[in-house]
């Protein structure tokens, strides 16, 4: 029997790349199980050889980079915003690019509640095609406008409420007519849909598949942050949801982001497991319940439920990563008694409150990092949260550099069909 023909050295990188993606297209998009795949007019390559080539390409492809931002939490977005500002600063310094942005170094972003607003601010393009906000500007936006888009409870914990047209005007001015399709990278932002009685995930990938799932970003931000039912419709008016706070449905969206990547073979063809991921999950601090009064109020119970759900997701994700959780998965979270913070009661105290929040967030970053341990709860490690972010920035830079020399793209992000860009209506904030 004649030996099966094999790939020889005359096959250059372009031909190998073509072969690899022809297999992927046939296998994942069309479900072909034919043991013989014809990749060119003159070469028929056996499956064993192709499998080896795919493994080599998979190694060369690198890791998919995921950013996840919690919704509910003690700081309600401020700690996550401060973490992002520090991470972006590290990326600029390590890359040597003073204009480096968070969106340049991540392939997917997921955010819930205030985290969803941060995701939209950092991954929506402006007129020049670059993100309309860098991380410091997004943090400043959240602090300066929190009284328009969130309200304080008597306990000093912020709730995400869009009560008036003031918030709508603010978001309209910020995002213009931009929709999910316009975002620079895959974006995932959850809410709870009363009409279907189930969580609803706003997704760029779904928006590109059908217009019925494309929503304006200003509506997405309202939906993921509302504490009361708000009716939303897709751009083509075909899909209707009655949305409420994404923190109720999915306070920590890390697991949703990982599942999205592992099951999206069109955009992430070489990602088969958690070992192919590089994930950072940003919490928002946890409320401490101390003292002798061990009877929590209804407000306390809601907070406990949201923060407990985030911790459970962290535990589950850590278990899924197993032995590679310390190098492929980083959780930035802090334990601090936010309910003990006293804010001035004056209506003109917004600036003072902002300074207090910034100070608390800086304290959170200097706390020792807390890691989930398989079947053993949590442990405090030697590195601080800021040191963990510094290290993770280095890993993102390494991945970015690796892709420059790879002949195989790690991601194949779907592009929106050509149309008049709505991003031209966006307002670019002044530099911070």
CATH superfamily: Cytosolic phospholipase A2 catalytic domain
**Continuous helix count:** 15
CATH C-level class is Alpha Beta
Taking the alpha carbons of the first and last residues, their distance comes to 72 Å
Mean pLDDT score: 79
Determine the structural class based on helices, strands and strand pairing: alpha/beta
Question: What's the helical proportion of residues?
Answer: 40-55%
Low-confidence stretches: 1-13, 26-45, 151-164, 338-348, 420-425
Q: How can the largest sheet be summarized?
A: 8 strands, mixed
Output the helix-strand order.
HEEHEHEHHHEEHEEHHEEHHEHHEHEEH
**Shape assignment:** globular
- Rg for CA atoms: 23 Å
CATH architecture: 3-Layer(aba) Sandwich
CATH topology: Cytosolic phospholipase A2 catalytic domain
Q: What portion of the residues fall into strands of 2 or more residues?
A: 15-25%
Total beta-strand segments: 14
Number of domains: 1
GO molecular function: hydrolase activity
Domain PNPLA: 67-258
Keywords: Hydrolase, Lipid degradation, Lipid metabolism
Motif (DGA/G): 245-247
